[in-house]
Request: fold
Amino acid sequence: MVARALSVSVTLALAALALALPTAPAAAQDDRAGLLAEIEREVMCPVCGIPLELAHEAPQARQQRRLILDLIDEGRTKDEIKDVLVAEYGEEVLAVPGTSGFDLTAWLVPGIALVVAAVAILVGLRRWRRETVGADGGASAEAGQAEPLDPEEARRLDADIGRYRL
Reply:
């Protein structure tokens, strides 16, 4: 009875293993292609000066792809592959700038520009609103109160309003 239960367990385990084996190479191919695509977005073709994913015809780009695929087949990680590419082609092969030294400005300048633009828009809107309210002729922006009417204009206004009373 114990031998039969053990036999059934072994059979089930072998069946599960057999089902998993055919998908392993396909999954490995998907991982390989995914890692290649990810690296292609993050490195440049040194000859073309464009991301490797867009450089299709250049012999240099094909050579880089072969090198990347060989390194993937060796089991290297993305960072290790990028390190090999930098050693082979120089720092300019990286599409994303570094986070220290002069490369840090590539990250800081756009952020600072956004903040300056937002402040400029706010200041401009406040001035525009102040000028619009002051130009109405009715309300003064600084005083916040209506200007008194000339007595002749007040009489004429009252006469006009009187004609439209319901």
User: Anything to note?
Assistant: The chain has two domains: 2-96, 104-163. The helical segments are 2-20, 23-42, 59-73, 78-89, 105-135, 151-163.
